[in-house]
């Protein structure tokens, strides 16, 4: 489905095509990638938006392959537009998912330019070109930093100022808009919507040095699919438990069960648990600092990044990588060390009476509370266990804890074509495998080897 | 040796602008900025229109001497810039004659050619030291 603003951009593009003054350029990029990975439990995927993975020694052609097509239309010295689609393995595809760029650019002066429409989302150092295999030395961007972010583009506008600074060039950009993507974090493919995205990006570079700082604020504008059933379960359990407690009080069981509060409340504030599993309206931020240096044949680059969120579903995430390259003729040999760590919250049971959470609760003893009440309580306690399991699953949805050492080789076959071979060795901690596609969540620790062979090109 | 590497010995690359351009000379970093799309304006603030030379060996030599990078690395750089919608690479014309003709007709153009194609409509603003 083509959304109206993008249709408008496309329509205006075609209108411009009929103007003899303009210049139209077609270009593109792509990668044919073969991937194999060793684990039956943790299946490799390029980022959390993929609802499938490759593992168990299988060979796969779709996991990292893509094809990008771009049309640039120059209407005048100042006004131009760009339209780009990236075709790759998607679930429930539609045109909007493939549309990566559709914007107008107005160059106010050589220093100032503004873009409006769909632009690449400028979150981290490589975010804008992570799908362009030919652009970077590695076969894939470090998953620890980039795999956790499903979002790729921004529907909004940005303003960029370019200047010469301290012997180099700098770009300072502010942007505003919204973004939508998908994340497969459990049994569901979630739609993750964000709005009020406000970002600042600064980069300074010479031919040898680059230094990049980015900070972006955002607000979730959707809840996970799991939110509604978990919220209903929590409300039902809390309501039912408090009724059982009140019934016990009415039966004069306060003396026999000292933990029973006078009002019979067993779950004091279930709204706290509901708040934990919600995302809608919660704010967050992305931050990144990166630098790179090239000297003769040697290159060194590093990035540290952090994601913070008010929502417990997306806990604070710290990640980073360091990479070194060595060039000999048309070959580039490289190594990358990347790591990610999250600190997921757990369900806070301080508002829940032990009478509800304890498996040996007196409320479950028919000899004490009667057969009817104990039977009702047993059902409630089972429902409570499921609800808390749902809460804990939500709180560990983004739990990623792993480190990858990669070594690889890039060979420039042509000026616009590169062959790359890369081997990853990843150590995944207990319940830290969110970046991988798993049939069952929260699996145990494991080491996984992954091999990539890619042919990246531009045209 | 001259028979083995005739181009390397003969090609004398100069960076040229239209003779009406107010810029008389440029330093290496200014030329890099223009041809790598980092800052596309002359020192007087006016817009610059860089042009690539389609003679592959000339282009290779130009970028190697200017940036120390192979064409593959230059293209990798441009794939980051172009496909993120920042800016486009220079337009490319077939040979030095076409480039010289284009620069002679466009006052904002800047290009590089084999010195033998210089004419009275062009002005040299940068020469590589070791030629």
Mind explaining what this structure looks like?
- Chain A is α+β, with helices and mostly antiparallel strands.
- Chain A folds into two domains: 26-224 and 278-344 and 396-458, Porin (Beta Barrel), CATH 2.40.160.10; 227-276 and 346-395.
- Chain A is 19% helix and 45% strand.
- Chain A has eight helices and 17 strands.
- Chain A has helices at residues 4-17, 95-98, 143-146, 227-250, 270-276, 354-357, 366-369, 371-395, and strands spanning 23-37, 59-60, 66-74, 79-88, 99-107, 112-120, 153-165, 168-184, 189-205, 209-220, 283-295, 298-309, 317-328, 331-342, 400-414, 417-433, 446-458.
- A 16-stranded antiparallel β-barrel of chain A has the order 1-3-4-5-6-7-8-9-10-11-12-13-14-15-16-17.
- By secondary structure, chain B is an alpha/beta fold.
- Chain B has one domain: D-Maltodextrin-Binding Protein, domain 2 (3-Layer(aba) Sandwich), CATH 3.40.190.10.
- Classes of the chains: A alpha+beta (459), B alpha/beta (131).
């Amino acid at each position: 489905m083509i959304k109206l603003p993008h249709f408008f951009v496309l329509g205006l593009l075609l209108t411009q095509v009929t103007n003899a003054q303009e210049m139209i350029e077609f270009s593109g990029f792509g990668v044919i990638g073969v991937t194999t990975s060793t684990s039956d439990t943790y299946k490799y995927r390029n980022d959390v938006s993929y609802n499938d993975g490759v593992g168990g020694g299988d060979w796969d052609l779709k996991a990292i392959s893509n094809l990008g097509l771009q049309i640039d239309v120059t209407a005048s010295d100042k006004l131009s537009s760009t339209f780009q689609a990236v075709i790759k393995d998607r679930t429930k595809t539609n045109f909007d998912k493939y549309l990566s760029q559709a914007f107008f650019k107005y160059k106010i002066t050589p220093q100032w330019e503004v873009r409006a429409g769909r632009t690449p989302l400028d979150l981290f150092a490589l975010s804008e070109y992570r799908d362009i295999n030919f652009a970077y030395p590695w076969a894939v961007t470090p998953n620890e930093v980039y795999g956790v972010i499903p979002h790729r583009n921004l529907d909004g506008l940005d303003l960029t100022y370019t200047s010469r600074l301290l012997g180099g060039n700098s770009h300072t950009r502010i942007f505003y808009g919204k973004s939508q993507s998908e994340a497969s974090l459990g049994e569901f493919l979630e739609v993750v919507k964000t709005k009020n995205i406000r970002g600042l990006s600064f980069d300074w570079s010479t031919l040898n040095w680059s230094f990049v700082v980015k900070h972006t604020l955002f607000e979730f504008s959707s809840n996970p699919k799991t939110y509604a059933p978990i919220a209903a379960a929590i409300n039902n359990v809390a309501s039912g438990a408090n009724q059982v407690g009140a019934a016990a009080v009415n039966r004069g069981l306060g003396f026999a069960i000292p933990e029973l509060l006078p009002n019979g409340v067993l779950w004091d504030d279930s709204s706290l648990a509901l708040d934990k599993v919600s995302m809608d309206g919660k704010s967050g931020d992305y931050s990144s600092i990166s630098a790179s240096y090239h000297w003769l044949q040697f290159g060194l680059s590093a990035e540290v990044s952090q994601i913070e969120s008010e929502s417990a579903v997306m806990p604070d995430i710290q990640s980073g990588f360091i990479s070194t390259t060595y060039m000999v003729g048309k070959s580039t040999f490289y190594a990358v060390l990347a790591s990610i760590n999250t600190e997921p919250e757990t369900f806070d049971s301080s508002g829940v009476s032990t009478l509800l959470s304890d498996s040996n609760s007196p409320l479950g003893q028919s000899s004490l509370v009667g057969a009817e009440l104990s039977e009702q309580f047993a059902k409630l306690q089972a429902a409570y266990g499921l609800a808390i399991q749902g809460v804990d699953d939500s709180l560990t949805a983004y739990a990623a804890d792993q480190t990858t050492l990669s070594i690889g080789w890039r060979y420039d076959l042509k000026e616009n074509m590169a062959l790359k071979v890369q081997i990853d060795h990843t150590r995944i901690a207990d319940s830290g495998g969110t970046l991988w596609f798993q049939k069952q969540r929260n699996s145990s620790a494991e080491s996984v080897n992954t091999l990539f062979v890619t042919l990246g090109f531009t045209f | 040796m001259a028979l083995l590497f005739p181009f390397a010995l003969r090609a004398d690359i100069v960076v040229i602008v239209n003779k009406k351009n107010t810029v008389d000379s440029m330093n290496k970093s200014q030329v890099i900025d223009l041809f790598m799309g980092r800052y596309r304006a002359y020192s007087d603030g006016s817009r610059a229109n860089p042009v690539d030379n389609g003679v592959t060996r000339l282009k290779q030599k130009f970028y190697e001497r200017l940036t120390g990078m192979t064409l593959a690395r230059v293209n990798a750089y441009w794939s980051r810039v172009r496909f993120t919608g920042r800016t486009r690479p220079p337009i490319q014309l077939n040979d030095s004659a076409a480039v010289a003709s284009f620069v002679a007709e466009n006052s904002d153009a800047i290009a590089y050619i084999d010195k033998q194609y210089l004419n009275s409509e062009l002005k040299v603003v940068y020469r590589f030291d070791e030629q």
